[in-house]
Amino acid sequence: xxxxxxxxxxxxxxxxxxxxxxxxxxxxxxxxxxxxxxxxxxxxxxxxxxxxxxxxxxxxxxxxxxxxxxxxxxxxxxxxxxxxxxxxxxxxxxxxx
Length: 97
Hints:
The chain is mainly alpha-helical. About 70% of the residues lie in helices and about 0% in strands. It starts with 16 loop residues before the first helix and ends with a helix. The mean pLDDT is about 90.
C-alpha cells in the first residue's frame, strides 16, 4: 500500500462562542415558557418534568455564557500581553549596545 504524505493540520477556527451559547440559552427559556401552560396536561401523560428540564437547560446556559465571556476575555488579554512582549523585545533589540 502506498503511503501518502501527511499535510499539516489547519489552525482551529474561532467562533463566536458567546453568541452560540446565548442562542441556545434563549431557546431553553422559550421552551420553558411554551411548556408551562401545558404543565397539567404534560403531567397527566407522564411528561411533567419537561418544563423543568428546559429551566435547568436555561440555568446551565447562563453558567455557559458566564464561562464563555470569561474565556473570551482571557484570550484577548493573552493576545494583548503577547503583542506587548513582542514590542518590548523589538524595542530592546533596537537599542545600541
